[in-house]
TrEMBL record, chain A:
Top-tier EC class: transferase
GO terms classed as biological process: glutathione metabolic process; response to toxic substance
Organism: Coniophora puteana (strain RWD-64-598)
UniProt keyword terms in alphabetical order: Transferase
Catalytic activity: RX + glutathione = an S-substituted glutathione + a halide anion + H(+)
GO cellular component annotations of the record: cytoplasm
Name of the protein in its database record: glutathione transferase
UniProtKB/TrEMBL annotation, chain B:
Any one GO molecular-function label of the UniProt entry: glutathione transferase activity
Native species: Coniophora puteana (strain RWD-64-598) (Brown rot fungus)
Record's protein name: glutathione transferase
GO cellular component: cytoplasm
Reactions the enzyme catalyzes: RX + glutathione = an S-substituted glutathione + a halide anion + H(+)
């Protein structure tokens, strides 16, 4: 049975799983979750994903949610095909884990925080707090200075090979760029080099406008 | 060479790492970084941890930071037959740990950190008053998340099933701070969360580090 990806086409986290599946040459069937009808908050949905969030996968009855957990599962299970996305050498794997954690602790909160103020709040009928949006940008800028140092010493955020840690940055970086914040990345030479490379991978080009 | 943990006894992320060491019966030495004096922002420190955050480890010359990455590395390297259950290697078992660890990082930690920051870190370390509006926002975000936790823990003992894993462990240090911040009722009011918290907070490995890493 082909892997089923339950999500929303433009959802950042759904596109993250889609790009990973494509890197691994894992075919999937996209199953749309109807946000307009609040399907993600329905009892049938929350029975699988108690937080009412997308995406989740269903692989022959094995259901899993949290895009980064799904990505890790696919990368380990399908390690023999497509791009190697998690190193096997223990020290390389540790540096990969460090990269994944850098994304979740240092990048995501501020990328998400900015997007929340500028876009998500409006969708919920709330007003943007411009001061908070600025705060997130300021913090993100300082974090990206550290990224520029790291990427001056190693090719990718998880070491010298491309890993999931890099792919986890794709959706929100693209979001920030569409919100006019591309300069955060362009103005830092190593970050710019890294971004140009990962954002031009065919797997991302195939899903960036819809999983 | 004994594992060196560069951190601070008062730091929750340092305690996460040392608790993992205790779970694995792995000897370690804490090298104290005095964050109140800004030691974590000095050039010497930044060379090892470019974000100026604690902790980092030095395992015989191998330097690693980010407490959740360190935990996974130590569990993978130093687990034996008894402790391998903390971070299983079969595909589905591992996936369930990563699912619960991701829940912690994205559904639990941001709001808990925010609330603890308002109630404890700001007044104690940054000379700033609690912003009650922001505190309420964090609590409003956290409450429905903890309802989901209560639902998950209604049918299983731990976050992934029958066994205590790194995913449960990642919640402990900040949950203790939530209690310290006078917000323990968030857990107490939810029977399954309360049961789970009481169990994991009683682990010997936590008791050994909770007050001093």
């Amino acid at each position: 049975m082909v892997l089923k990806l339950h999500g929303a086409r433009m959802s950042t986290c759904t596109r993250t799983v889609a790009v990973v599946a494509r890197e691994l040459n894992v075919p999937y069937e996209f199953v749309d979750v109807d946000f307009a009808k609040a399907e993600h908050k329905s009892p049938a949905f929350t029975a699988v994903q108690p937080f009412g969030q997308v995406p989740y996968i269903d692989e022959d009855g094995f259901k899993l949610f949290e895009s980064r957990a799904i990505s890790r599962y696919l990368a380990k299970k399908y390690a023999g095909q497509g791009t190697k996305l998690i190193p096997t050498d223990p020290k390389d794997e540790a540096v990969f884990e460090q990269g994944v954690s850098i994304e979740s602790s240092n990048f995501y909160p501020h990328a998400f925080g900015f997007a929340f103020e500028k876009v998500f709040k409006a969708r919920r009928g709330l007003t943007t707090d411009e001061a908070r949006a600025e705060e997130h940008l300021k913090t993100l800028a300082a974090k990206l200075d550290a990224y520029d140092v790291i990427l001056g010493k190693q090719k990718y955020i998880g070491g010298n090979e491309l890993t999931l840690a890099d792919l986890f940055h794709l959706a929100y970086t693209q979001f920030l760029i569409t919100l006019g914040q591309g300069d955060l990345f362009e103005s830092r030479p190593n970050v710019a080099r890294w971004w140009k490379e990962i954002s031009n991978r065919p797997s991302w080009l195939a899903v960036k406008d819809g999983a | 060479m004994v594992l060196k943990v560069y951190g601070n006894p008062a730091s929750p992320c340092t305690r996460t790492v040392t608790m993992v060491c205790k779970e694995l019966n792995l000897p370690y030495e804490v090298v104290v970084i005095d964050f109140t004096k800004g030691e974590h922002k000095l050039p010497e420190y930044i060379k090892k941890q470019p974000f100026g955050q604690i902790p980092y480890i030095d395992d015989d010359g191998f330097v690693l930071y980010e407490s959740r990455a360190i935990a996974r590395y130590l569990a993978s390297k130093y687990a034996n037959a008894d402790t391998a259950i903390l971070y299983p290697s079969d595909f589905q078992g591992r996936a369930l740990v990563e699912q619960a660890a991701s829940i912690e990082a994205f559904n639990f930690y941001p709001s808990v950190y925010g609330a603890v920051s308002e109630r404890i870190f700001k007044p104690a370390f940054r000379g700033q008053p609690t912003d009650e509006t922001r505190l309420q926002e964090h609590l409003s975000a956290l409450n429905p998340k903890l309802d989901a936790y209560d639902k998950i823990l209604d049918t299983q003992k731990y976050l992934t099933g029958d066994n205590f894993t790194l995913a449960d462990l990642f919640h402990i240090a900040y949950s203790a701070l939530l209690e310290q911040a006078g917000l323990g009722s968030l857990f107490e009011s939810r029977p399954n969360v309360a049961r789970w918290w009481k169990d994991i907070a009683a682990r010997e490995s936590w008791l050994a580090v909770k007050d001093a890493a």
